[in-house]
Amino acid sequence: MLRRLRDDRRISREKLAFAAGVSSSYITHLESGDRERPTRAVIDALVRYLDRISPVSDIERRHLLDLAGLAPIDNPSVQDLRAEITDDMRRTLTLQEPNLAAYVDTRWNVLTGNETYARAFPGLIDDVNILRWFFGNPLSREVMVEWEKESTLTVNWLRGLIGQQAGGDWAAELLEELAQYRDFRRIWDSGDTAYGREHTAMRLRDQHTGEHYTVDVQMFRLDSVAYPGRIQYYLGVRGPA
């Protein structure tokens, strides 16, 4: 891959090596796959130089990182992830009406959702984070028929996600914010962990009519080019009460 990018731009190994601050023999090893785990700084320097001569696509950049055994940026913001939601992806949300559909990240932030999703969870789009909505927005208790069950599952799932992502500043900041809520502290202190829903059924109450209904919930991880595995697709298929 690196050799193709270099050849496409008609750059010698020596010139690329000089620009990245490494030896030409190092470039030879990288191109032959003999060099194990180059640092991110080296890959970034190589890409910067190649990109100045001719743009390196997001897919090419991602492939270089994958070949080097380096994960892409591991702390994307909500804005970063929202920028990954394409028009085609938004169109799938509309096509799912009247079912609930949304894109959320692995930290329980809602990136975007369709109209049915917004109506089912009033205030959630503005609150952004599902846990913030559960514990800080009284509307959550009005529409979640099994509020205790669902909030507990989400807290326990968060614990699993923090473990998967090795914590970080984002986890500390979110936990500090949520710690102001007594019910969150109570559930968190139980120490339980979850990695998904045991049952798909989620029971909801229509805020305006008071009608109870059930949605069968499924979550799918999406392989975004820039942030693989960080965006999830939420689908709630509406059924009877």
Kindly list the characteristics that best describe this protein:
241 residues; alpha+beta; five-stranded antiparallel sheet; elongated
Description of the molecule:
With 241 residues, this protein is of the alpha+beta class. It has 14 helices and 5 strands. The protein has helices at residues 2-8, 13-20, 24-32, 40-53, 58-67, 78-82, 87-95, 115-120, 124-127, 130-136, 139-143, 147-164, 169-178, 182-188; strands at 100-105, 110-113, 201-205, 212-223, 228-239. Strands 2-1-5-4-3 form a 5-stranded antiparallel β-sheet. α2 (13-20) crosses α4 and α10 (130-136) runs antiparallel to α12. It is elongated. It starts with a helix and ends with a strand. The mean pLDDT is 88.
At a glance:
Helix 2 (13-20) crosses helix 3 and helix 2 crosses helix 4 (40-53). The chain has helices at 2-8, 13-20, 24-32, 40-53, 58-67, 78-82, 87-95, 115-120, 124-127, 130-136, 139-143, 147-164, 169-178, 182-188, and strands spanning 100-105, 110-113, 201-205, 212-223, 228-239. The termini are far apart.
Total number of beta strands: 5
Q: What is the SS-derived class?
A: alpha+beta
The end-to-end distance, rounded to whole angstroms, is 54 Å
What does the radius of gyration come to?
Answer: 22 Å
Low-pLDDT residue intervals, each spanning 5 or more residues: none
Total helical elements: 14
Mean pLDDT: 88
Q: What proportion strand?
A: 15-25%
Fraction in helix = 40-55%
